[in-house]
Amino acid sequence: MACQCGNGGCGTDYGTPARVSEKLVTLEIDGMEISVPEGTSLMRAAAEAGVQIPKLCATDSLEPFGSCRLCLVEVEGRRGYPASCTTLVDSGMKVRTQTDKLADIRRGVMELYISDHPLDCLTCAANGNCELQDMAGAVGLREVRYGQEGKNHFKSAKDTSNPYFTYDPAKCIVCNRCVRACEEIQGTFALTIDSRGFDSRVSPGQNESFFDSECVSCGACVQACPTATLMENSVIRHGQPDHRVITTCAYCGVGCSFVAEMKGDQVVNMVPDKNGHANHGHSCVKGRFAWGYASHPDRIVKPMIREKITDPWKEVSWDEAIQYAAGRLKGIQAKYGKGAIGGIVSSRCTNEEDYLVQKLVRAAFGNNNVDTCARVCHSPTGYGLKQTLGESAGTQTFDSVMESDVIVVIGANPTDGHPVFGSQLKRRLREGAKLIVVDPRAIDLVKSPHVRADYHLKLRPGTNVAVANAMAHVIVTENLVDEAFVASRCEAQDFMEWKSYVAEDGNSPEALEAVTGVPAADLRAAARLFATSGNGAIYYGLGVTEHSQGSTMVMAIANLAMVTGNIGRLGVGVNPLRGQNNVQGSCDMGAFPHELPGYRHVADDSVRGLFEEAWGVALDNEPGLRINNMFEAALDGSYKGIYCQGEDIVQSDPNTQHVIAAMEQMECVVVQDLFLNETAKYAHVFLPGASFLEKDGTFTNAERRISRVRKVKEPLGGYGDWEATMMLSKAMGYEMHYDHPAQIMDEIARLTPTFQGVSFEKLEELGSIQWPCNEQAPEGTPIMHIDEFVRGKGKFVVTRYVATDEKVNQRFPLILTTGRILSQYNVGAQTRRTSNSSWHPEDILEIHPHDAEERGIQDGDWVGIQSRAGETVLHAKVSSRMQPGVVYTTFHHPFSGANVITTDNSDWATNCPEYKVTAVQVMKVTQPSEWQKRYRQFSEEQQELLQQRETAKA
Ligand code: SF4
Ligand code: SF4
Ligand code: SF4
Ligand code: FES
Prior knowledge:
Layout lengths: L23 E6 L2 E6 L4 H7 L25 E2 L18 E3 L3 H16 L15 H8 L26 E3 L9 H10 L4 E4 L6 E4 L15 H5 L5 E3 H6 L4 E6 L8 E7 L2 E7 L12 H5 L14 E2 L8 E2 L2 H19 L4 E5 L5 H15 L4 E3 L6 H10 L17 E5 L3 H4 L1 H12 L3 E5 L8 E2 L2 E2 L2 E3 L6 H14 L5 H7 L2 H11 L6 H8 L3 H13 L3 E5 L1 H4 L4 H14 L9 E4 L6 H6 L6 E2 L3 E2 L3 H11 L11 H9 L5 E5 L3 H4 L3 H10 L2 E6 L11 E4 L8 E4 L4 E5 L11 H11 L9 H11 L8 H7 L1 E3 L43 E6 L24 E4 L1 H6 L7 E6 L3 E8 L7 E5 L7 H4 L16 E7 L5 H24 L1
Parallel strand pairs: 1-4, 14-15, 14-25, 16-17, 16-21, 17-20, 21-22, 25-26, 26-27, 31-35, 32-34
Antiparallel strand pairs: 1-2, 3-4, 5-8, 6-7, 9-10, 10-11, 12-13, 12-27, 18-19, 23-24, 28-29, 29-30, 31-36, 33-34, 33-36
Helix pairs in contact: 8-25, 9-25, 9-26, 10-19, 13-16, 13-17, 13-19, 16-17, 22-24
Bound molecules: iron/sulfur cluster (3 copies) and FE2/S2 (inorganic) cluster (FES).
The site of one iron/sulfur cluster has 14 residues, from helix 4 and helix 5.
């Protein structure tokens, strides 16, 4: 249902999209002179002059369609009554929008609509927020001469198959807005108008239900619908909101802006914000609909403690829990040394919260044992881009893709992992940009409605660097280098070394074909396309970073961008698609054992001195432990306590059995979270976390865009996460003093050059800011490295391909690679507690038909997947999206134990785990694995211990 509030970020609906043109056209509308860009519709020109022309089929997020005939106007010197939404402005035009004749026509149109529309306004969920109702009022409709007795659709059956919205055909005015939204905005093409004339109705797919169709539940059609035909179930249930708050989605790194529509402290609806700089009014199923987890009964809202993990939990006051945690942590330090404890920062928490946790570890724990889940996803991005370009972040805005001529997507699946950006990318592809996909699997982008990849380089997992080197070989040996760019912008000596390396015969596509599995001719053609098609942009994801050569591949990508001159302007660049909402932010905030906020090394005396002075405490100049080192140290007995805020390391880190063994060795595990997650099952102290709806702060998305997260309700546990960190810090002996997260951001800005100009005040003013934001760039930096690289000259780094140690052999002949799916998010703790699970109730194993046949496996069979690290059992899906020899699964359900199979192998530079390459054997089985049985039993015991707390309380 379209937002008509006129505030809260939705704003005026101008009827048709804005046009960009240097040429202005001047015309007269109702006697007012107005100048607008050429190509603007009369409807939009009028709206910009403050004149609202009645409309139904038009809305400014969609191209005009001209079907309802409500927006007719009179144009002096022209015959008839043109539709203002489809008629473009012309110089000197004189337009009249309100005449008696027009009023008659509009009333006649409305009468026809209303004669086939149930007059149940008082009980309709859209009452007060319905464009049909508004238009009836606007045209002065007082009677319906045709009555309602004729043929009508009043008894049409509702489609309630989608868990989040209802389709009520009785209320459809066949304006086509939903169909166009699905095509133009979302790019899924799931809807059509079925039949003709009176019988025409909206239909998902071939007369399927919404649930069974291709619909991905992005909500764009619901948003576009001017009536109650497509309506959110939450609005049907709760009614219209009474106030609105703009905030930011807490799921993926796109960082969509949303208007939280509220009734008291009840969220009624989450509407994508038209003014959101990252999403421009679009959303995906997660941010739009999957927010119910925040009020799920599984939420734990009272602090709990226990002596041993086999004890029942005991509910205690915050003070008791904090004192208990601090007492145990201090005891560990007294017994085992200062470095025996540490903290984990979450990429789901705000910048302010992340900053405080690293400050707690450094100032109160007195060491640098702080790490973030970016360790297991994008740490190679930080390393690789810093080495080559000088800054650990992507170079562009999302909107930049609209200027790209050729787009390379490597190891990323934007339509599932970053759906709103995926839709924008598809829009650009439909406009004609070329596409090269480098992925072992045929992701949706390879072939979807009106989108075809020009090249799909279906490489063997683990051979990214070889593919990048082969592309570079073609560019260098076929004289496709942007010589002027390289000469003026890059280090000459490094370039020469790199050039002679990639030019070696051993790096040719032909020489590497046997290694990569990519036909040399395709690779050559793709490299030529990238180097010669104008603006070339590279987008990549975890399929690049989560490898033993993750950092090498990031540098190889930067090399490719530099050698083709594709850096420093719109339409180009190196664009890491960050997984979680605040991965960029958690890294920026210094949640690394070797770096203080702003990516500055702890050993740098001047930087450390700055923090020491501000924080009034001496800081350790030695890097601390990375997450994986913490596990190793726990197993060797030197690391005994951990504070884990908002991160589920037991489920998300590789080699689960190894992680669990380490957790069992710890004497104090403090978990702050919403739910009793997998890590909390090994905890001694549980502190209730606040959901994003209960937080004030900021998230930084994949474009370096800092956006406000605004509290729409008080934390269910009584305190924000930042307040809990402050309390723990005080109990550890180091007091922090903040009254609001805005003050934390002020401190970050004082101490971090790239954040120098950032404040909550400025965020209010600008909506969002892309760092660096400082004196040189007071409103932020949408595109980086424009005239020179952050490091001065760009540095080419020789990227030798080194095969992973994880080899297939007779015992483990297949390669398992992992990824994510649209409806679920990361470890699934949030999405599994929403109706999103109707689409993905379990993780499954995708296997190529040949591999399946060889093993007698059919769709739906239970299959055991065995690696050198462990074994698990999943249902199989036979799929030709896979290539022979490669199997694939997701990791959203703890029982799947995807990380029981993944190994300890990791990126050479950052220890980012090699999730994407695990040698496995797959065979038909009839029961869960031993690990799964143990997991089930342990989980049931832990749930029982949780229940006992509740029983004791009652
Ligand atoms: S919810 Fe999205 S994908 Fe589904 S029909 Fe509507 S616009 Fe299309
Ligand atoms: S469902 Fe809504 S948007 Fe779609 S045609 Fe009907 S009234 Fe228009
Ligand atoms: S694309 Fe990402 S940020 Fe946007 S709504 Fe979906 S999950 Fe949220
Ligand atoms: S709004 Fe112009 S024809 Fe419908």
